[in-house]
């Protein structure tokens, strides 16, 4: 199956570099480019990519607002945010807005390709250690919009196993890792993940991670 990718960055030379890397892969197809957030939203609507490689800081409309608009539109596209620093407050804001992961701009080509494939598969492309630092640095400053949107009884509606799965999601573990820790199959993990997202009204795994920290399901520094 071919993964359709939209490149959104205000620097043409970076888009050119990303395109050169992606076009060498038989399972990846660059379907379009955007030079700002507004174009990214419009191109996502028109081209229906599987993954949007989204720069955070762009003119006209930044990557955070663009990510939020794409998520709110109901698009199936997954947003992979590009940033210069792994402790950039904009990264945390983008995750809360609906991004499925983030990647440093100086990442190696293999890391870029892996992140795109991970996000396209529905998993979160966020390293656990970096994620914990992001949550620690910015969760206390962020307004509790997630909690406001999700009734507390939604958490109570989770079964014990679903809560276990949410805890493992919060640690940014893959289905295989969750299955090994909970002694269940990957297929069963996938079913539980789907139920957790549905019951909590969450977009994807990355959103589940943010939700878990903001609502006290897991504490910063827990392992």
Describe the protein:
- The chain has 223 residues and is α/β, with parallel strands linked by helices.
- It has two domains: 3-138, 3-Layer(aba) Sandwich (Rossmann fold), CATH 3.40.50.2300; 145-214, Winged helix-like DNA-binding domain superfamily/Winged helix DNA-binding domain (Arc Repressor Mutant, subunit A, Orthogonal Bundle), CATH 1.10.10.10.
- The chain is 53% helix and 13% strand.
- The chain has twelve helices and five strands.
- The chain has helices at 12-22, 37-47, 63-72, 89-97, 109-120, 128-138, 145-149, 152-156, 160-170, 175-182, 186-200, 205-214; strands at 3-8, 28-34, 51-55, 78-83, 101-104.
- A five-stranded parallel sheet has the order 2-1-3-4-5, sandwiched between helices.
- Strand 3 (51-55), helix 3 (63-72) and strand 4 (78-83) form a beta-alpha-beta unit.
- Helix 9 packs across helix 12 and helix 10 crosses helix 11 (186-200).
Helix and strand sequence: EHEHEHEHEHHHHHHHH
| Number of distinct beta strands | 5
- Rg over CA atoms, rounded to whole Å, is 17 Å
**Class per helix and strand makeup:** alpha/beta
Give me the CATH fold name of the largest domain.
Rossmann fold
Overall pLDDT: 83
Question: How would you write the strand order of the largest sheet?
Answer: 2-1-3-4-5
Summarize the main sheet.
Answer: 5 strands, parallel
Percentage beta strand: 5-15%
Shape, principal axes of CA atoms: globular
Q: What's the architecture of the largest domain in CATH terms?
A: 3-Layer(aba) Sandwich
Low-confidence spans: 143-150
CATH top level of the largest domain is Alpha Beta
User: How many individual domains?
Assistant: 2
CATH superfamily of the largest domain: Response regulator
- End-to-end separation in angstroms reads 35 Å
Portion in helices: 40-55%
Annotation field: number of helices: 12
């Amino acid at each position: 199956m071919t993964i359709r990718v939209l490149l959104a960055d205000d620097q043409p030379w970076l888009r050119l570099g990303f395109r050169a890397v992606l076009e060498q892969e038989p399972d990846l197809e660059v379907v379009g480019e955007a030079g700002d957030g507004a174009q990214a939203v419009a191109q996502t609507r028109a081209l229906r990519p599987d993954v949007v490689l989204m720069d955070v800081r762009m003119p006209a409309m930044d990557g955070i607002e663009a990510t939020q608009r794409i998520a709110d539109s109901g698009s199936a596209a997954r947003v992979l945010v590009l940033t210069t620093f792994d402790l950039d407050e904009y990264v945390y804001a983008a995750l809360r807005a609906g991004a499925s992961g983030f990647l440093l701009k100086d990442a190696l080509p293999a890391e870029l390709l892996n992140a795109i494939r991970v996000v396209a598969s529905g998993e979160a492309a966020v390293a656990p250690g970096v994620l914990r630092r992001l949550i620690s640095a910015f969760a206390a400053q962020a307004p509790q919009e997630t909690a406001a949107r999700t009734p507390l009884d939604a958490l109570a509606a989770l079964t014990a196993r679903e809560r276990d799965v949410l805890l493992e999601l919060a640690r940014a573990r893959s289905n295989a890792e969750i299955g090994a820790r909970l002694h269940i199959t990957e297929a069963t993990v996938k079913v539980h993940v789907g139920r957790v997202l549905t019951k909590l009204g969450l977009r994807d795994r990355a959103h589940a991670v943010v939700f878990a920290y903001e609502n006290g399901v897991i504490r910063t520094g827990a392992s």
